[in-house]
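Let us practice reading a record.
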Amino acid sequence: MKLLKFLPLILLLLIVPARSFAAMPDITAGEMYFDVFKGYYVLRNNVHVVMNNHGVTATITADGAKVNVLTQKCWADGHVTFTHGAEIFSCDSAYLQWKTTTAEVVGSVRFASPQNLAVTAETAIFNWKSKIVDFYGGVSVAAEQNLKFAGGVTLENKTYAHVRYNVIDNTILALDENFSAPEIIIPNPDNDSEAN
C-alpha cells in the first residue's frame, strides 16, 4: 500500500531530470492523490503544505490545494493561511511560486506581523526574497507606535488603494489613496508547465 502512495513520485523522478526539482514539499491532507495526467497533487480537507526551496520555507493550510513539485507552484483555496517566518496571511485563495519567490493572495486578505501591524485588503503580492508586500484595494492599516515610514509617508485613519510594506524594516514605503492596482488572476493549474 505504501508503494502505491509513492508510485506517482517515482514515475515523475524517472521522467524528469533531477536538476528540475527543489526539495520535496511535506504534504498532508484528509484526501490526497497525484493526478498523473495533469502533473500535480490534488489535496482536500485539512490541507497542510510545507515547502522549502534553498532555505526559504513557507507553510500553507487550506480547505483544498494543488501542488506541482516540478514547477514548484501551489494553488490553495478556502480558508487559506500562508505563513512565512513570523508573517501570516489569511485569504480566500493563494498562488505561490517558489522560482519567483512570490505569493499572490486574493479575497478578504488579512495580514499580521510580529511588529504589531495588522493590514486588511482585497488582494496582496508578497515577495519573500525582497520581503516587500504590496496590498491592493480597500487597504486599512492598524499599527503600534514602532511602525516606521519612508520619507514623506504619513498614516491617517482611512483606507488606501495601495500600501507597500517592508517586512524586515517594519517600514511603510507607500500609502496611495489613488492607485491603478494590477488585476491579480490566479492561473489555472491545468495550464501550468515548467516554461511558465
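A brief commentary: The helical segments are 2-15.
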